[in-house]
Design brief:
heterodimer, A: about 120 residues, mainly beta, seven-stranded mixed β-sheet, about 50% strand, globular, B: about 120 residues, four-stranded antiparallel β-sheet, 12 strands
Amino acid sequence: GAVVSQHPSRVICKSGTSVKIECRSLDFQATTMFWYRQFPKQSLMLMATSNEGSKATYEQGVEKDKFLINHASLTLSTLTVTSAHPEDSSFYICSAKDTIGQPQHFGDGTRLSIL
Amino acid sequence: AQSVTQLGSHVSVSEGALVLLRCNYSSSVPPYLFWYVQYPNQGLQLLLKYTSAATLVKGINGFEAEFKKSETSFHLTKPSAHMSDAAEYFCAVSDLGSTSYDKVIFGPGTSLSVIP
């Protein structure tokens, strides 16, 4: 149980392109979803927290207009990297949870490479 | 603010040897604590969690961790390392500063290598 599917697993695109990453909870309703960014050999950096039907809460230093998050349903959240540039290249991971205090369940991540 | 430290960014053990990965946290109240494992180019998988019940927590793949309030520690152990245990391990603490225990703070991670 508690499977989170993240798609695509890898994206390579040109600078200036907007990229959308999907995060789906397959067998539970995710009241809260999280988006993380992970640089090589480093820990996860929380970018934003999204609750179904409301605006995402962004961490300090994360550009809201750059990283658009939508959590339109209890099973789907999307992260759109707008006008991506090489410095946006990273490993993006989503997670989801259904109950307060319970652990997050993670997707397998998306490797984004901007040329 | 809560924080998590993991002593040793890299740990090497021989196959069959004891695995000990250290985690210390800072919190003014009893936290929720987690250990996650990450294999290359994958997301995180929950190994075990502590949520104020038994102080010795057993997880998957033979791992366990003991919550020691006096030492503010939550070290991860496994009696006998297997080659498949080689991965990155993250200790995490729930952020009680958030209103709903939702936010989790991750430690810097420890890379475990298993030598045949």
